[in-house]
């Protein structure tokens, strides 16, 4: 070997020996020789290899003995080629030897200790399974090129998660690691399981005109609405863009919309069907069916608020008033009945019984199929936490978001005094965090809620501070376990089906699926229909609503409550009375009544009778003016009626005016006042009481009785 060859060989060997001098592994020389042979075959120095070349070379190393040299080869590819994801490309299962080769022996121990210690403290992982997270931590550190946790970024973690299947242990470990990094301030927030699904799919926006899509994307970025509201409105904005491309290709930009185009869009929305202008959508349920009231309102309200924002932000020059032109037609808006979707009393009672008797055995076992087959039974969440969650759901009347965001110190106990008995009793006040309509507030709940929450607080393990999504402040949360908030879908998808099965009721009824939000409407309706109900203003404050109109969507007066209130009001029956009537059958049979020769009906006035057939229409019925229709009981005709055969008795209802009812229920002065007001009113015979000279000697009606339609117990009273 000449001097030049020796120099070239030394140039290849010396760097390898320099970095591997501290490895102290007998396989180093063998691995170095394998690398040099590949350099000779390729006629290319190893530091010039790209990642694909390194991957192919390491993958070609097979056999048990040769396989043990892969860590050395990957370490050289990492150090000399800068290929930090080479270990992932070749599928290395064990990363600790590689990390020691790259960073130095024991350099990653502080990071591993910090991660594993906190996760065990938070009860995020079993103490017997530390390797599930260690490999994920090593993967992140190697990819970051540093043994320090502070050099791991959120973007790097998101890229790593995307490289692993959803079911892989390493991917789950990255999520757990992110919680520690977020708790220590290394990254702004932990990973979320849906971060890859956020936003609209590319195939969905492909059918939207570029000019419209550009403005819609910009609006989504700057909108100050709730994230959930923005996610709901954005696809509806794309619907309007597709509509414009189909109906008005010349107006595919919001700036080009005129009053006529806007009015046409609203008109087409009123006749649209589901899926029309929706673009690519995997959910095709109900496609082709007419849009419901909610669908029409959603499209109209979205496009109206969109144009209002564009005009207010001075992105477009206003050409029409969107509040008028893009308003939802009144005929459609009138159909938006609040209609609270309450759960019927029987099903709700069974749900409450099931929730208050819930045990760990009722919950679904958590674990791998192998562990379950071996008889290992565990719950993902402690039963004390689940009981507290169920108690808040059954008695708190909260939104699911409010339940998840309850603070650790959310319960405060107070005392109150019963005004009737003077006894004191405990009051449980639940502190509700800032919500979508109001700021934080406290409201009374059943003491059982506080007791269940305190029981969970007693055994709750230490948990990290988590950033509140509304206030952006880091704080402790009540329903936090394994270093994360309870799942947003856990109550609806997991717990409520368990309660329904335990209660023996279906998971849905005529109003739809039983959900966490329907409990809020059920509780609100019960409070509004209780024996001593909350007023609408009180209920509005208890629910945390800003406007009373919002409360109408959660509470309504039940039919039975309305019927009972209507009965108690008695606004019509209070003016109804009955009067005894004598019927002369002889006058009817002989035809004398038909010929007008003789009366056939006599109303009993107490001191006499009124023979006027239309007594109910007589204005003087409460104070008879003694017109020719009046028959005194002491007269011959009156005495004859008392002893005559063929006289039937019956009761007839009279509807009194308010003045007549007051006169009837008042004293003689009230009757006198009524008579004076009627002094110049003609009697059925024609003359007025003043003309008859009877206004000072009227006959007050004393024979009116309470209507027979009233219950017997009211008559007894």
UniProtKB/TrEMBL annotation:
Gene3D superfamilies in alphabetical order: Intergrase catalytic core
Domain called Tyr recombinase: residue spans: 387-557
Annotated region described as Disordered, given as residue ranges: 677-698
GO biological processes: DNA integration; DNA recombination
A Pfam family of this chain: Phage_integrase
GO molecular function, one term: DNA binding
InterPro entries found in the cross-reference section: DNA_brk_join_enz (IPR011010), Integrase-like_cat_sf (IPR013762), Integrase_catalytic (IPR002104)
Assigned keywords, A-Z: DNA recombination
Name this protein carries in UniProt: Site-specific recombinase, phage integrase family
Annotated organism of origin: Streptomyces turgidiscabies (strain Car8)
């Amino acid at each position: 070997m000449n001097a030049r060859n020796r120099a070239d060989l030394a140039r290849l060997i010396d760097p390898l020996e320099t970095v591997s001098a501290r490895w102290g592994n007998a396989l180093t020389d063998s691995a170095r020789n394998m690398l040099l042979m590949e350099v000779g075959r390729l006629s290319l120095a190893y530091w010039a290899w790209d990642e694909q070349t390194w991957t192919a070379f390491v993958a070609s190393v097979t056999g048990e003995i040769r396989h043990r040299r892969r860590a050395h080869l990957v370490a050289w590819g990492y150090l000399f080629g800068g290929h930090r994801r080479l270990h992932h490309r070749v599928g290395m299962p064990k990363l600790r030897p590689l990390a020691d080769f790259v960073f130095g022996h024991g350099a990653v121990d502080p990071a591993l200790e910090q991660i594993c210690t906190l996760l065990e403290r938070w009860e995020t992982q079993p103490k017997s399974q530390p390797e599930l997270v260690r490999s994920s931590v090593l993967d992140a550190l190697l990819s970051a090129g540093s043994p320090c946790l502070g050099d791991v970024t959120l973007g790097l973690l998101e890229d790593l998660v995307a490289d692993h299947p959803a079911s892989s242990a390493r991917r789950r470990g990255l999520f757990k690691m992110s919680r520690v990094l977020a708790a220590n301030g290394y990254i702004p927030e932990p990973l979320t399981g849906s971060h890859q699904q956020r936003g609209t799919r590319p195939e969905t926006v492909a059918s939207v005109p570029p000019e419209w899509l550009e403005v819609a994307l910009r609006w989504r970025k700057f909108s100050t609405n709730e994230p959930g509201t923005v996610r709901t409105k954005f696809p509806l904005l794309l619907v309007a863009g597709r509509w414009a491309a189909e109906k008005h290709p010349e107006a595919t930009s919001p700036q080009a919309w005129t009053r006529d185009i806007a009015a046409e869009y609203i008109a087409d929305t009123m006749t649209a069907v589901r899926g029309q202008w929706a673009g690519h959508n995997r959910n095709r349920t109900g496609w082709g069916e007419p849009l419901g009231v909610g669908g029409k309102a959603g499209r109209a309200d979205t496009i109206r608020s969109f144009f209002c924002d564009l005009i207010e932000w001075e992105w477009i020059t206003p050409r029409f008033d969107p509040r008028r032109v893009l308003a939802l037609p009144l005929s459609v808006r009138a159909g938006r009945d609040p209609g609270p979707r309450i759960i019927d009393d029987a099903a709700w009672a069974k749900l409450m019984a099931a929730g208050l008797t819930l045990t760990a055995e009722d919950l679904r076992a958590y674990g791998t199929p192998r562990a379950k087959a071996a008889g290992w039974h565990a719950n993902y969440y402690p039963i004390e936490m689940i009981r507290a969650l169920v108690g808040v759901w059954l008695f708190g009347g909260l939104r699911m978001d409010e339940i998840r965001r309850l603070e650790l110190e959310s319960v405060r106990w107070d005392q109150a005094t019963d005004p009737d008995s003077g006894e004191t009793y405990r009051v449980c006040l639940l502190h509700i965090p800032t919500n979508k309509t109001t700021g934080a507030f406290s409201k009374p709940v059943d003491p059982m809620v506080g007791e269940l929450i305190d029981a969970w607080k007693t055994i709750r393990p230490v948990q990290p501070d988590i950033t509140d999504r509304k206030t952006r402040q880091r704080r402790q949360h009540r329903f936090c376990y394994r270093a994360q908030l309870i799942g947003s879908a856990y109550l609806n998808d997991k717990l409520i089906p368990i309660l329904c099965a335990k209660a023996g009721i279906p998971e849905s009824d005529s109003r739809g699926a039983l959900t966490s939000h329907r409990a809020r409407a059920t509780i609100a309706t019960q409070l509004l229909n209780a024996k001593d109900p909350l007023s609408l203003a009180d209920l509005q404050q208890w629910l945390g609503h800003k406007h009373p109109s919002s409360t109408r969507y959660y509470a309504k007066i039940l039919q039975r409550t309305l019927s009972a209130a209507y009965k108690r009001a008695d606004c019509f029956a209070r003016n109804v009375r009955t009067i005894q009537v004598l019927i002369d059958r002889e006058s009817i049979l002989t035809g004398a009544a038909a010929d007008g020769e003789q009366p056939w009906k006599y109303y009993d006035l107490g001191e006499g009778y009124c023979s006027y057939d239309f007594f109910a229409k007589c204005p003087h019925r409460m104070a008879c003016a003694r017109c020719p229709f009046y028959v005194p009981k002491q007269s011959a005709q009156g005495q004859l009626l008392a002893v005559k055969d063929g006289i039937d008795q019956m009761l007839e209802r009279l509807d009194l005016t308010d003045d007549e009812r007051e006169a009837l229920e008042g004293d003689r002065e009230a009757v006198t006042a009524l008579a004076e007001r009627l002094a110049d009113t003609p009697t059925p015979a024609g003359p007025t009481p003043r003309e008859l000279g009877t206004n000072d000697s009227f006959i007050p009606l004393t024979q009116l009785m309470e209507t027979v339609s009233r219950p017997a117990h009211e008559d007894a009273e």
